[in-house]
C-alpha cells in the first residue's frame, strides 16, 4: 500500500476541530498552570486512540507522558514532543484569546499551536488515519514532557528512568516546517543554552542621586561590566569561550552555505519590526546555525515604577543566556564568563547559573535523515527541501540520543512567520495538512527499510 497523501490531508483537516481542543488548556510551565489537566487530557487521548501502553512518569516536577502503539512491521519510531507552552503575555497584543483556537485567513491562532502542540495534533491525527486504514506501518512511541519551556531541567532524568520504554530505530523530534523561502526544513540538531543571572551590589542602601559624583551606581557597574564581554563585532570576549566549538562537517557546511541566499532578511525585518530595517550581520543564516551567542534578556535596578524617584541604585541584576554549539558545556561556559569579569576588573559582578542544555547534531548523512529528505522531496518538490544541522533554539536532544543511540530528526508544521513565544502565534492550515501527509508517507517508507 502507498498512502494517499491527499486522503491524509483531508482526514487531518476533518479532525482539526477535535484535535484543537488540546490548545484550549493553558499548560504554562513557567507559572505552573494547567499541568495536571494536560496530563489527564493526554492520557485520555492516547487511550482513546487505542495505545497498547500509556504511562505517566511523575517523580520530578512536571510529569511526562509515554505511550506506545504496535504497527505492521518491526521498525520503531519514537516521537518527542512537549505539552507545556510559554506564557501568553502581553495579552493586549493578541487579536484573539490565546487559549481559544481561532482560524483567520487560513491560519490557526493559539498559544502553543506552533511550539509545539500543533505537531502532536498532526502526529496523532496521522495515527488515527492509519488505524482506520489498515493499521500503523511501524511501531510508534511517544514521549511528551512538560518542562521544555523552562529548560527541560528533569528530562534527562526522565529519559534515563524511562530508558527501557524508549528503545527505537529513530527519533522524530518536535520543531520544523517551512523557512523564509518557503522550503521545508529537516532539522538534525539543536543549539545548547546556558541561562544565568548577573548581580552586583555597591552599597547597603539606595542613595540620593545628587551623590552620584562620588558614589558607585550598581546599574552602571553592571552594564559596564557586561559590556566588556561583548564587542561591536558580535563576538564574546571571554578567554576559552570558543575553545571546544565543534565545526560543521564538510557536508553540513555545504548545506548551510546553500541556504544562505534563501534567508529572507526582509521577512525577518517585517515580522519583528526591526527598527533600522536591516540585520547587522552579512550571513545571518550561517551565524544562527554555527555561532554561539550571549544575550541580555532583562535588566533590573533601582526605581522602575511610575513617576520620578531620583536614586542611585545599590543593587542591579540581569538575566542572560548563551546559545551554544556542540562542544560547549553550559556550566563551564558561565564559569569562563565569570573568570573574564574578574580579569576585566569586575570581581564584584557575580554570575549565578540557572539551567543549561547541551547542543546536539545528528550526522546529516545518516540514512534516516537522507530518507527524510528523499520523501520530503517527493511531497514538497525536489528543490523545496533543506537540511538544517541544528535549530537556533535549544532542546534536550542529547539525553535522548544517549538513551536511544538512534538518529534524531526534527520535522514540523510551522512557517517563518509563526511567531512562537510571541503574541498571535499561528500556523497555516495548508502547512499543517501537508506536513501530516508527509509524515504518513515517511512512516510508510521507513517501515519498508531494511
From TrEMBL:
Keyword Repressor attributed: no
Do you know which Pfam families this protein is assigned to? Answer: M20_dimer, Peptidase_M20
Give the SUPFAM superfamilies listed for this entry: Zn-dependent exopeptidases
The organism's superkingdom is given as: Bacteria
Q: What Gene Ontology terms describe what this protein does at the molecular function level?
A: metal ion binding; peptidase activity; succinyl-diaminopimelate desuccinylase activity
- Transmembrane ranges, per UniProt, are none
Protein name in the entry:
Acetylornithine deacetylase/succinyl-diaminopimelate desuccinylase-like protein
Q: What is the lineage of its organism?
A: Bacteria, Bacillati, Bacillota, Bacilli, Lactobacillales
